[in-house]
Amino acid sequence: MELDVLSIVAHPDDTELTCGGTIIKMAEAGYKVGVLDLTAGESGSRGNAVLREREAAKAAKVLGLAHRENLHLPDAGIEDNRAYKLKIAQRIRALRPRTVILPYWEGRHPDHYLTGRIGYEACFLAGLSRLPLEGRPHRPHKIIYATYYVPVVRPTFVVDITAQLDKKLKAILCYSSQFSPRKDTQNLFPARGNLRETVGSLARHFGLMIGVRYGEPFVTREVSQVDDIVNMPVKSV
Ligand SMILES: [Zn+2]
Questions:
Q1: How far away, in angstroms, is 1 Cα from ligand 1 center?
Q2: Taking the CB of the first residue and of the last residue of the chain, which one, N or C, has fewer CB atoms within 10 A?
Q3: d(CA 14, ligand 1 centre) in Å
Q4: In terms of CATH, what superfamily is 5-219?
């Protein structure tokens, strides 16, 4: 398989929440998009692994994914160890993505930031030929980090998801086991009644940064190249 985009996340629903609009937009543009969920989210306070995998399969259809799989690492147990990095690297070799989306490398939940860190190292390891891995070496061309869970980080760029917000909300709603019946403003997963307001207001915040209605934020480690300074998007004044 040769994917154009691969989102590597700790839990099913992380992709939908942090970069779902961007994933939908790329799938709509005809790109082959995949998701690699590292855990089944079995340690979450709501739902269970079987239920969450069923929900993830349903959400995959809404996102328009060409591929989705689960590595079944322990939830709330992502570690910076070689075995996990090689497992992810093996899947990168098999799926051969051009662009990889990772969670930002800092944050509140260790599973999230550790996925960002070991995901990066797995991308590197996948390109080394003398490792105990099957298949041809492969290194993604681009790694971008979704910063939606860490909104204090200033994004390198924002993707306009104005036309994709409704579908993003629909994909999030597939995870019905995660919704609390009561108002729960502490949980990252918004309460059902507040979904449009919570997800929409953050997306609005990032959209404003680039002068559109709704957006999703990303960071890159490297500097971007510009060849045409006459046709640059986003107004300065
Ligand atoms: Zn998560």
A1: 26
A2: C
A3: 5
A4: LmbE-like (3.40.50.10320)
Instruction: Give the domain ranges of the chain.
Output: 5-219
Distances (CA, A) of 187 to 13, 21, 108, 196: 13, 21, 12, 15
Ligand 1 centroid, distance to 235 Cα (angstroms): 34
User: At 45, which amino acid appears?
Assistant: S
The Å distance, Cα 174 to ligand 1 centre, comes to 15
Sign of CA pseudo-dihedral 46, 50, 55, 56? positive
How many A from CA of 18 to the centre of ligand 1?
9
8-state DSSP, 114: H
pTM recorded for the entire structure: 0.94
Supply the mean pLDDT for the chain.
Answer: 93
Ligand 1 center–CA 81 separation, angstroms:
19
Q: Say what the pLDDT of residue 117 is.
A: 98
Distance CA 173, CA 61 (A): 13
Find the 71 Cα to ligand 1 centroid distance in Å. Answer: 15
Give 143-160 pLDDT, tens digit per residue.
999 999 999 999 999 999
> Average pLDDT of 102-107?
97
Tokens of 37: 């969920």
Tokens of 75: 């939830």
